[in-house]
């Protein structure tokens, strides 16, 4: 018999988790984006960026573009978690083992969410750039389409999908595995894990997944924020080779990885654990 699912609850819980986590890590995200898109010779250290932003733009500048980010993260997270739960359930019903269904479901959920919300992510990234000419997400999308065509809304999407499929698979797979491990250590089943145990599992899962696919995140941000008429790179593989050849591995492909750890650990910890908690509460209220 197919497993019972609760799509409305999954959708709402994903949106709530996304808004809270994204707003909490907005300052780190803005510094990370500015550092990622600068070439290695243009910015020596990300540590110098935060004081400069504070000095030149004020404290609220750390949340610049966060409204656009939240507008994007609500549908993105809602679709991600809803798709993950549905894909995983269907795959298990089809006979796939739980761990394999978790990995495949996470991967498919990431691709689905990216495909449906990518223009919003591009608008958010461009609005986080210094001196952005756009006044709102709608303005960014409209002017980008007018100046470069509708296709520009999907600039860098190939790199994003190539990265998000393994990232989501690793993130969800590691999170479920770590929850089981923690439960075994503390003698608890998954449903009775304490919030701090979920947070710890989420933080570690995020670090593992993000480190594995980080170079593609660098490619994605550079492609999104490139304002030229022609694409910055011919393909994700061309981008990886070009950055590695011109800037090296550590200062190019893994540029900003340390600050990304500072963002990813709390971000994934918050939204994965909060999603679980809100989902279980909503489902219990429905019963």
Describe this structure in words.
- The mean pLDDT is 86.
- The protein is built from eleven helices and no strands.
- It has helices at residues 7-24, 26-37, 49-57, 66-93, 98-127, 137-148, 157-186, 195-225, 236-247, 249-253, 257-286.
- The chain is mainly alpha-helical and 287 residues long.
- 76% of the residues lie in helices and 0% in strands.
What is this entry, summarized?
This protein has 287 residues and is an all-alpha fold.
Main attributes?
single chain, 287 residues, mainly alpha, 11 helices
Give the ordered list of helices and strands.
HHHHHHHHHHH
Unreliable runs = none
Query: What structural class do the secondary elements suggest?
Result: mainly alpha
Number of strands: 0
C-alpha-based Rg, rounded: 19 Å
Helix content: over 70%
Using the alpha-carbon principal axes, give the shape. globular
Mean pLDDT: 86
Query: End-to-end span in angstroms?
Result: 19 Å
Assembly type: single chain
Separate helix tally: 11
Strand content: under 5%
Q: How is the main sheet built? A: none
SSE topology sketch:
Elements: H1 7-24, H2 26-37, H3 49-57, H4 66-93, H5 98-127, H6 137-148, H7 157-186, H8 195-225, H9 236-247, H10 249-253, H11 257-286
